[in-house]
Amino acid sequence: MKAIVVTDQAAGTAGMKLVDWPEPQAAINDVVVEIHASGFVGTELTWPSTWADRRDRDRTPTIPGHELAGVVTALGYGTAGLSVGQRVFGLADWHRDGTLAEYVAMEARNLAPLPGDVDFTVGASLPISGLTAWQGLFEHGRLRAGQSVIAHGAAGAVGSMVTQLAREAGAYVIGTGRAADRQKALDFGANEFVDLENDTLEDVGGVDLVFDVIGGDIQKRSAGLIRAGGILVTIVGPAEARPTDGLAVDFVVEADRAQLNEIVQRVRDGRLRMNIGNIASLDDAVIAFNPTQRVSGKTIIRVRP
């Protein structure tokens, strides 16, 4: 099969290559999926899990990418809940070979059925952005109707999901980003928008929840806006700032079949829109991983036409 492989951490993205690679085999509780579309996060080559296993042993060469949509082609011993020929989408384990390839072997529990009326490209855009937003808002942020939320990066892949899910849950959403992102954030459902380059963030007043995808100074200033009992949720590592009378939570997204089902159902009935910024082929995946200009939205690799 064809796959994108990295072997040298020091080389970073310059060391990415499209190569011929052995097709994976299904271990116990695994499935093999023929990948039709996949997604990645641009910072993956800085993650320890890309280069080492859970015991900190070198695992290179490795295949990056962890989101996928495709068709099950084989079942490992003991695998239940999925069948050969079934359309699926999901989130591959961080410490195993990923989805910038024609096939992947992964645990069946990390996949959910992909309805026939949802395109593979759409399916591959959902796992990280959708699950991150869902878990950050509802599990870690404990969002309730009537609360106010700052959604940083509201025009981005994660931020646009945060905005839509929070609005659907009955929250008042203040989106942030660059000036050029204002209309896009409003189109995704933000009640108002703060241009972080030209507006004053503190003018929004107190809020119940901040969903941080930026960190640094913006995170520190945001922590000061959280009301008593509120929560700062961040996905950029341990929080550098904490609310005076609230919580700060950092987390790493996890695969969850039930949540994937909830998310894809919202796509099907029009409550959730995708934010796909670029679609490239596997042959062009290295270029897509190294964009020469800013891409607003999720980049998807279309592995099969």
Question: What do these coordinates show?
Answer:
There is one protein chain. It is built from eight helices and 15 strands. Strand 11 (207-212), helix 6 and strand 12 (226-234) form a beta-alpha-beta unit. Strands 3, 4, 5, 6, 7, 14 and 15 form a seven-stranded mixed beta sheet that branches. A six-stranded parallel beta sheet has the order 10-9-8-11-12-13, sandwiched between helices. The chain has helices at 48-51, 120-124, 127-140, 157-168, 182-187, 216-223, 257-268, 285-289, and strands at residues 2-5, 17-20, 30-39, 67-75, 87-91, 103-107, 111-113, 148-151, 172-177, 192-195, 207-212, 226-234, 247-250, 276-281, 298-302. It starts with a strand and ends with a strand.
Q: N-to-C SSE series?
A: EEEHEEEEHHEHEHEEHEEHEHE
Number of helices: 8
Structural class: alpha/beta
Radius of gyration: 19 Å
Shape: globular
Strand content: 25-35%
Q: How many beta strands in the DSSP annotation?
A: 15
Mean pLDDT: 96
Helix-residue proportion: 10-25%
List low-confidence stretches: none
User: What does the largest sheet look like?
Assistant: 7 strands, mixed
Distance between the termini: 16 Å
Task: Describe the structure concisely.
The protein has 305 residues and is an alpha/beta fold. Helices cover 22% and strands 28% of the residues.
